[in-house]
Structure formats: C-alpha cells, structure tokens
Amino acid sequence: MIKLSVFYFVFYWSMTIVNVFLPLLFGYKGLTPAEIGVVIASAPIIAIFSQPLWGIISDKYQTVKKIILLLLVASLLLGMSVFFSSTMILLIVSMLLFQFFMAPIQPLMDSLATNISRENGGNYGSIRIWGSLGFASSSLAIGFIIGKIGVQYLWVIYIIIIIISFILALSLSDSKAARKPVTAEGFKKAFKNPKYVGILIAVLFIAIPHRMNDSMLALYMKSLGATEGQVGLAWTFSALSEVPVIAIMYLLMRKLPLLALISIAGFFYSIRWLLYGFITEPFLLVITQAMHSVTFAIFMVATLQYIASIIPPEMLATGQTGYFATFTGIASIIGSSAGGYLMQYYGGGLIYKLGSISALIGTSIVLFMFLKERKQQSKVLTQHN
C-alpha cells in the first residue's frame, strides 16, 4: 500500500500539469478562451470510450500494473505533441491521441487501490489522500517554477514526472481479486434502475460547472491579474482542503443519509460558484477554493457510495463507469466548450453565475430523490406497525 500511495502522490503531479496549467500554455500559444475550451473539451470525448476500453483489456488479462506501464509510455510520447503543436486543429488531434492513453490511468489506479486496500484491511481513502497531497504540493511548486522559467517549458517538468511515475509503477503489484468486466448488458440493466438514472442526471448538472472551473479557473484568474504562482496556490488550497474531509467521510456517512450528504455538497457548490461570479480579487478566489472540501470531497465519496448501495455488487464496475463517464466525460465536454465560449464573449463572472444555477438544479433533483426515499421508508414502517 505504501508503494501505491507514493505512486499516487507522484502521478498526481502530472494531473496538475494537464488539468491546471495546460490552459495557460494554450493561452501562451495564442488561443482564445473559446478555442481553449474546445481543445480541452475534445479530451473527455475520447475518454468516454478509452476508459472502459482499457478497463476491459485490463479485465481480460487480469493485470492493472502492466496496462498502467503501457499507458504511461504512450502518454509520455504523445504528450509531446500536445506541448509542441502550434495550431488549434493540431492541438485537438494531439489531445485526442494523448487522452486516449492518459485518461484511463486514474480509473485503473482507483480500481487497483480499492482492491489492494480491501485485501490488506485498509481503505481506499487512505491511499487516495496521497493523490490530493501530490496535487496540492505540485500546484504550488509548478506554479512557482513556470512563473520563473515560463509556461513554454512545462514539457520539461512533464517528462520528469512521467519517467518517475513509470519507475515507481514497476514496483507495484497487481490485485489478487478477479475483476468483473463492464458489459453492454450491464449498462442496460443499470439504466432500468430509476434511482441510478436520477443520480446520474443530478451528477451531470452539478458536475458541469465543476468541470468548467477545472478548465477555466486559470484563465479567469489571469484575466483578473493573477500570477502563475497565485493560480498554483488556488489549486493547492482546493487539494489540501479535501484531505481532512475525505479522511472523516466514513464517519459522516454513518451519521447522515447519503442523499442528504450529496444535497449538502450540491448546495455548497451553488454558493461556491455564485461567490466566484462576484469576486474580482484573485487572492479571494484562492481562499474560496478551500470550499472544494465541502463540495467535491463530500460529493464524490457520497455519490460513489450511493451508487454502490443501489447497484448489485456484480454490476458495480458498470455503475462506476457510468458515473465517471458522466462526471469526467459528458460534463467536461459541456462545461469546457460552453464555458470557454461564454467566458470569451460575456466574461468569467457570468459563467460562474450560470454554474451556480446548474448546481442548484442538480441539488434539487437529489433533494427530491431524498424526500421521496424518506416518504417510502416511512410508508413501509407504517405498514409494518
């Protein structure tokens, strides 16, 4: 588990480069916010297909380690095309090829961490926390470095991180547990479950502004006069803030119903984006990023746990795939492309205000599901009495 935790810590440095600083690099290349949004939105399009595909390949050969090693090598080679492509068309093609190999690594890591922790009597959160710490430390460090040497040299940092990640991955061990594959039949059964469909719709509305913020925050902060260091610090605040919340989520889930927790997270999401829409001082945005703790940290853990509670164990991989396809796929496509366009023509404040409304719609759906579930439970108790 220690080796896997260290791998999480280092690999999340590469995720910082892709998620936080690539938009700044694209801006350096001369792309407009609308164009950057389209380029970033192209990545989740391919991820929707590549993540389950590589999961199926991993299931077939019963190895996560070897697949991760292969994906790291491909991500290293194809990542260079992203850093050195000079036109929007080339960047889109490069991002599609790059993310075909890069995007599946995290889900495979999460799957391995879940199984390894179960086999060793630990819990997934104790491993996942190291990813958050890696993201936090790298956001601050990389922001400082590129502030000194320039964002055009981001590729050097990326190469170093991927090589170290590859070396660490060599020491990992595969889980002994057999993995249940994702199947088309499984998806058909899952989507016949109204609770599953309902939570995915809610996830979509709540995730759209979240994914929009992932791709647009750096550009928004730069438009307000922020430095690269402040951009990095903002992501450091968000990543560090989620650590203690993830650590105590198992206690919160014992005290409160899962749908209630998801509703609380959705409500705070709506408040968070509304604040972003009115803030004009970069440092205040840095501080407000700490709301990541009461939004994403609660939302992610509670939602995955809720899906696990309404989906049969043999369909869990299918249920989780649907969640990730919605959160990191469809929501990213809509959030990045629409966010970039609206930011360019109407300003960053508007996209966050609209994001607040979107999160509120998703929260209302979850709250409706919660109240309906409570009513059904009360009815059952009344009948038994």
UniProtKB/TrEMBL annotation:
<dbReference type="InterPro" id="IPR026032">
    <property type="entry name" value="HcaT-like"/>
</dbReference>
<feature type="transmembrane region" description="Helical">
    <location>
        <begin position="350"/>
        <end position="371"/>
    </location>
</feature>
<feature type="transmembrane region" description="Helical">
    <location>
        <begin position="67"/>
        <end position="84"/>
    </location>
</feature>
<keyword id="KW-1003">Cell membrane</keyword>
<protein>
    <submittedName>
        <fullName>MFS transporter</fullName>
    </submittedName>
</protein>
<feature type="transmembrane region" description="Helical">
    <location>
        <begin position="291"/>
        <end position="311"/>
    </location>
</feature>
<feature type="transmembrane region" description="Helical">
    <location>
        <begin position="153"/>
        <end position="172"/>
    </location>
</feature>
<keyword id="KW-0812">Transmembrane</keyword>
<feature type="transmembrane region" description="Helical">
    <location>
        <begin position="34"/>
        <end position="55"/>
    </location>
</feature>
<feature type="transmembrane region" description="Helical">
    <location>
        <begin position="323"/>
        <end position="344"/>
    </location>
</feature>
<feature type="domain" description="Major facilitator superfamily (MFS) profile">
    <location>
        <begin position="1"/>
        <end position="374"/>
    </location>
</feature>
<dbReference type="InterPro" id="IPR024989">
    <property type="entry name" value="MFS_assoc_dom"/>
</dbReference>
<feature type="transmembrane region" description="Helical">
    <location>
        <begin position="232"/>
        <end position="252"/>
    </location>
</feature>
<dbReference type="Pfam" id="PF12832">
    <property type="entry name" value="MFS_1_like"/>
</dbReference>
<keyword id="KW-0472">Membrane</keyword>
<feature type="transmembrane region" description="Helical">
    <location>
        <begin position="129"/>
        <end position="147"/>
    </location>
</feature>
<dbReference type="InterPro" id="IPR036259">
    <property type="entry name" value="MFS_trans_sf"/>
</dbReference>
<feature type="transmembrane region" description="Helical">
    <location>
        <begin position="259"/>
        <end position="279"/>
    </location>
</feature>
<dbReference type="InterPro" id="IPR020846">
    <property type="entry name" value="MFS_dom"/>
</dbReference>
<feature type="transmembrane region" description="Helical">
    <location>
        <begin position="193"/>
        <end position="212"/>
    </location>
</feature>
<keyword id="KW-0813">Transport</keyword>
<keyword id="KW-0997">Cell inner membrane</keyword>
<keyword id="KW-1133">Transmembrane helix</keyword>
<feature type="transmembrane region" description="Helical">
    <location>
        <begin position="90"/>
        <end position="109"/>
    </location>
</feature>
<feature type="transmembrane region" description="Helical">
    <location>
        <begin position="7"/>
        <end position="28"/>
    </location>
</feature>
